[in-house]
Amino acid sequence: MKKRKLLLLVNMWLFSAAVMYAQNAKIEELKLRLKNAKHDTTRVITLYKLAHYYSNISEYTKAIEYANQSIQLGESIHFISGCANAYNNKGTIYFYLGNYVEALKNYLIASDYSKKSKTRAVLANCSINIGIIYAIQKEYDKTMKCFAIAASILEETKDTLALGDLQNNIGSLYIEQGKYGEAEKSLLLALKNYTDWGFNEGIITAKLSLADINFKQGSYTKGLAYNFEALKLSKEIKNIDGISKAYLSIGENYLKQNKYDSALIYINDAIKLAKETGALNVITTGYEKLADAYLFKNDYKFALNNYKNYILYRDSIFSQENTQKLVQLQMQYSFDEKEAIIKAKQQIKDASAREEIQKQKIVTISIILGSGVLLLILLLIINRRKAKHNLEVNKLENKTLRSQLNPHFIFNALASIQKY
Fold first, then answer.
1. How far from chain centre, in Å, is Cα 194?
2. Alpha-carbon distance 165 to 171, whole Å?
3. Is residue 268 within 8 Å of 290, Cβ to Cβ?
């Protein structure tokens, strides 16, 4: 039996090593492509892909370095779509680090670049990510508006993988609102899309969310099953962020079942890994749950110490200054959107005004031409009437003359003229 367990552990270690080797091989391949790249556009794309792969293995410092290099080069050559992708990746890195101010800032820039370059896939992704930040602030109406924009684009482009991301986030939003039935439907759809695509990171996220739903409804066994599936897959692909989140979720599950010692083990492991990657949201929640666990164990000293740590990390995420910055960014985003709308409306008004002026010019010219024609016709009528009047006068004068002359004289005169 022991041999079987040992063999299983060795096989798991070998598999994990193979996955890590594959991740590193991909990164090395991208580095080689970067070295041999002949065009700057290729360099920009390779750099933001490197940022993405380093983010996947939770090496966030390197991920930010490559994202910044991609942005710097992309902006220098005016490669707008490349900048959109790079800023979006950078925003996601900061989101994982719990720095929502920087995340939102980068998402908004990415959104602007994606509109300019008409890269609709990035625009949809930015809309989802901005919506998530609104959800964190419990501004659910704004979240749903962002999600609706993303859904419209993704359904039009038939991007089923990105639709999986959207369904996953909608599911998380429903969890926050306590709508567990609707949440489960969205998450199961997301899980199916992720499984069809073989997108492991998405599968992990969906299973962790499904575990959360079951915990909240008291289905601890089913919830733990989802958790351990997510943990297993996270370890297989060496996703440290996924491992730490799975540990935290398992710890919360045990805490709700009053299994405090087991809860403390998993939560401490989660915090330890999160500190390696700098994932502030996991660290913050971890300390909060540790405080709860020690409080239930009547260990008030450790409960107080962990609660202090929780407050410290919580305030580092949402300090007053950061909250103000978030509000300013949101206001600026809303202002920019409103400015664009006002500008568009003004352009429509200007076009309508120009069209109206043009119409007035045409009407004025038509009136002038019409008046000229009418005046000409009137003059012709007057001239004809005058000519007719003159003719009548001449006839009358002739008639008068005839009445005054001798008819025989007239006959003779005519006879004389005819002769000549």
1. 20
2. 10
3. yes
